[in-house]
Amino acid sequence: SFRHSLCYSCRKVSEPSQRLPLFLSLVHLDDQPIARNGGLTSMVVPLVPWMEVEEAKIFVGLERRFRTRLEWLSKFSHQIGGLHTWQVIWGCELREDGRKGGFLRYGYDGMDFISFDKETLRWVAAQPQAKKVKEEWEDHPRWSQRNKVFLEETCIDMMQKCLSFQKESPKKTEPLVGKVTRKMVDDSLEVLICQAFGFYPKEIQATWRKDGKVYKDKILHRNVAPNSDGTFYVWLSIEIDPKERDRFWCHLEHEGLQGPLVLALKEET
User: Fold this and answer.
1) Rounded to two decimals, what is the model's pTM?
2) Which of 135, 140, 197, 269 is deepest in the core (most CB within 10 A)?
3) Mind listing the pLDDT tens digit for each residue in 42-83?
4) SS (H, E, C) the chain
5) HSE-CB for 186 with a 13 A CA cutoff
6) Which segment of 73-82, 128-137, 236-245 scores lowest on mean pLDDT?
7) Measured between alpha carbons, how far is 142 from 105 in angstroms, rounded to an integer?
């Protein structure tokens, strides 16, 4: 378990595609997206208000660094031909017990390719074609040492700076939008799905209620997840007998609401 984390990921496509931008990056503080780059420019786009401050533009140089590294790796794609993707994900963690963690991994076509072991300063090849990369990168021990310092010190400093920006920023709330939908399984079983979108902060209370009482039987709950705009969404579904549909209500409580939001299924017209 960890108390705070900073995670940066970027993806490079080997050739132009109508479906994918040539380069895409995303930065998360804990589980909240805070900045991204769609690839058309080197400009980092803030996703939260406190990233507007000038000191928070700390990811531009890093993006250039990892973009160059992915472009170097993409030369392997040219030997194979076709459309391929290269990914890098790095980050650091402050854990509950005070310990610090860090990781740096590269991927190819959605699979692990090579990763850095900061304790041994060695690179671990996950695929046979990564062995050449491992040999070349391990020929530069100073660069491996810089990676270790980056993960254990620079990344932690960046995280703490972001946390201070977040703490000092004015608190805001975004009210949620909720709805209930259904999915028929058979004549004796259907699934009711309660969804809440676009709320901030992350904390929310979502329950199914039957005849006004909290109902916990046969419920599938998806954890609160982030949207790309810095807000969050959640859904929970429940299996019921269609004959009892009118007895079930979804109950949502969030500080962006003036009071609880109670939702029932609306029949489609």
Assistant:
1) 0.69
2) 197
3) 577 888 877 776 555 677 677 777 878 888 887 766 656 677
4) CEEEEEEEEEEEECCCCCCCCCEEEEEEECCEEEEEECCCCCCCEECCHHHHCHHHCCCHHHHHHHHHHHHHHCHHHHHHCCCCEEEEEEEEEEECCCCEEEEEEEEECCEEEEEEECCCCEEEECCHHHHHHHHHHHCCHHHHHHHHHHHHHHHHHHHHHHHHHHHHCCCCCECCEEEEEEEEEECCEEEEEEEEEEEECCCCEEEEEECCEEECCCEEEEEEEECCCCCEEEEEEEEECHHHHHHEEEEEECCCCCCCEEECCCCCC
5) 1
6) 73-82
7) 18
pLDDT digits (tens, 9 = 90+) for 167-187: 877 667 778 899 999 998 888
**What pLDDT sits at residue 269?**
37
